[in-house]
Amino acid sequence: MGQAAYLSKHHIIESNYRIGFYVSVPESIRWPVLGVAILAAVVGSQAVITGTFSIIKQCSALGCFPRVKIVHTSSKAHGQIYIPEINWTLMLLCLAVTIGFRDTKRLGNASGLAVITVMLVTTCLMSVVMVVCWHKNLMVAVAFTLFFGFIEGLYFSAALIKFLEGAWVPIALSFIIFTIMYVWHYGTVKKYEFDVQNKVSINWLLGLGHTLGIARVRGIGLIHTELVTGIPAIFSHFVTNLPAFHQVLVFLCVKSVPVPHVRPEERFLVGRVGPKEYHIYRCIARYGYRDIHKDDTEFERDLICSIAEFIRSEPSSAGNSTILFRDPDSAEEKMTVVGTSSSNLNGVTISEAEADSGSLSNMAGASAQAETVTTPDKPRKRVRFRLPESTPTLKAETEEELNELMEARESGMVFIMGHSYMKAKRGSGKLKKMAINYGYEFLRRNSRGPTYALSIPRASTLEVGMAYHV
């Protein structure tokens, strides 16, 4: 308002279009106003940084942005996060724009177009919210958009006039970010479609027999996959190249769902792949975009307890919450909702102790014991499952399956990670080749792995590579 008043008195000056904000400020208060402006810039920058972190985290959880490192800076407030890569990127962009322009007029043009574009987009999205979420009349939403959109459209058209004088910067940055998000999402969808189309049928697994046609060694093999049904192609690739596999196999799928939080009692979906003697399970771990992933030790404990609880309650699973996944190429998989060990107080819990910490009680009571396994690198440990006191007498096959799981847990867990390399098929268009062969592969190589894989001990990780064309 002060600048407008100054312009109203000095509009005759030939160079009035060069009059900046500080020219209109009286010299006696120019330095105090500069201090207030610096403080306002600090507050505004913090809002921009916080908003950018939040948007990047949610886009990454929904598969629309390459994975980045997300640090939770508060154990109480889940929304307080820090993303180092984005923070450095913002700093470099700010320095580049400031050094490149060296003129507050161009900076103002760029900022003005960015602000009015945000307001215009917000108005359009608000009209969608009014119809879809608030169930308002369509005419009310149209009237709202026309009224505010007309006012903001005038400002937007005025800002576009300054396009060549700095206003092109936010449009160029938005185009670059949009291209990155689109290429990453396109490549992720294509990768998932290939996995779905090339997954192995259950009939192939049944044809191998309960030993999978190879030697079964002690331990748990945790195979990470994006599929919620069927057997991933990476598993058949592994089986045909190595002569041994673990006595217990778990297909683990970690899914980020579009909700803030997933309740701990609904964290896992556990099911069985093949007959019982195969000892193959499927587990789907669901996380909201504001949930904090646990460390590897606590996650392993919750995972094993959820499988043990599924085995214990499977005969009476008709009363539990179940989900059926139907696959035309395989049998229906019945998944049971199982919570974490901390949320399921009436479920199976796990206890690990050193081998010389005393004897363990029998399975018929409150726990089960297994033979101690000695490894050269790790101290000897005994694992036991503690069942609720209200648990009825277990069947022999259920007890045997729990003992098998417990023995495998004592022997250790191996994380099997698949690395796939995508190439565009011959005859594909130039845009698709550029997006898949160069864009997506560049982003995949320079982005972080899945969040659950960051804390996996490298000594217990087995990586399997596979190349395919989409």
Question: Helical percent range?
Answer: 40-55%
Which regions are unreliable across 5 or more consecutive residues at pLDDT < 50? 356-376
End-to-end separation in angstroms reads 58 Å
Q: Which outline best applies? A: elongated
Radius of gyration of CA atoms, rounded to a whole number:
29 Å
Largest sheet at a glance? Answer: 8 strands, mixed
Give the gist of this structure.
The protein has 470 residues and is an alpha/beta fold.
Task: Give me the secondary-structure topology.
Layout: H1 2-9, H2 30-61, E1 71-72, E2 81-82, H3 84-101, H4 104-132, H5 138-161, H6 168-197, H7 202-208, E3 215-224, H8 233-239, E4 244-257, E5 268-272, E6 280-288, H9 296-313, E7 322-325, E8 333-338, E9 349-354, E10 367-368, E11 381-386, H10 396-411, E12 413-423, H11 430-446, E13 461-469
Parallel strand pairs: 3-4, 3-12, 4-6, 12-13
Antiparallel strand pairs: 1-2, 5-6, 5-8, 7-8, 9-11, 10-11
What does this structure look like?
- This protein is α/β, with parallel strands linked by helices.
- Among the domains are: 1-101, no CATH class; 200-314 and 334-346 and 383-469, no CATH class.
- The chain has helices at 2-9, 30-61, 84-101, 104-132, 138-161, 168-197, 202-208, 233-239, 296-313, 396-411, 430-446, and strands at 71-72, 81-82, 215-224, 244-257, 268-272, 280-288, 322-325, 333-338, 349-354, 367-368, 381-386, 413-423, 461-469.
- An eight-stranded mixed beta sheet has the order 7-8-5-6-4-3-12-13. Strands 9-11-10 form a three-stranded antiparallel beta sheet, covered by helices on one side.
- The protein is elongated and about 95 Å long.
- Mean pLDDT is 79; it is low at 356-376.
